[in-house]
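Quick look at the format.
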Amino acid sequence: MVACYYFRILHRESTRVASMLLSLVVQVARTLEVFPPILNLFRTKYSDGRSTRTASVSELCEVLLALLAASHDTFVVLDALDECMEGPLLLTTINSLIENSVESCRWFFTSRPQCCDIGKALGEQSVNTVTIQGT
């Protein structure tokens, strides 16, 4: 399964880390036949119709990691990282997700090199870099 997210600078809400995580949670959850218990707890907490709270980045990460563990051969594509308005939080979140996700999950990122050096941010993680330049 492939889950994708595109950070669009012209759509302010799409430039937030929480929006990206929520989108990935929904995409991965739709492919599962059985939901992990944490997803049911999350849904109960935030979809009762009375709550005005929104999920935190750490809560969304926890749910996404549980879903990725229940999924098989998942590819996560995050496009235009440089358009995220929460750059440091994004890099910290990506690093945490990669470190804690199952081996069957693969990650693919795109970004302008001058704006976001994902390779440096991930440190010891295995990162292959491809430079593509238009003319």
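Next, a different chain entirely:
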Amino acid sequence: MRTTGKRPCMSPDELAAALAGFLVLCAATSLPAADSPPPGFSALFNGSDLTSWRGGESFDHRKWLALPEAKRVAMAKEWTTDLRKHWRAENGELVNDGGGLFAVTEKDYGDFELLVEYKTVAKADSAIYLRGCPQVRIWDYTRRRNPLAQHFPP
């Protein structure tokens, strides 16, 4: 993540939700821990555990910010309990079992550039939510993975 110093067009919590929604229905995403981010960027995933991630839902982040601190903490705790049931770090990758809530960064960001490596499975439907909306859809609408097909290398 690299900031540009420009004023953010959405709230930091909206960005956190954006990054969170990214993995709801995916089987796995990949940001290899061995790779160092380019100069000026910082890694969102440390490659070994869920440090710096919490659970999240589709929630209007203007309303989130308006909640009393104690209410936000309680909701984040509940959502993170769900996150830990469905998300894990495995072989340097952030992996989802196909269920559960979003993975959301604990830190809020302003303007950013996001570099992502992503693995999917046949018929996957996922997204990276950029501050809650808009989203970058990640679909695989093929019938089944064919390891012999050129467009699906094993």
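Residues 6-10, 14-20, 22-34 have pLDDT under 50 and may be disordered.

See the schema section for token definitions.
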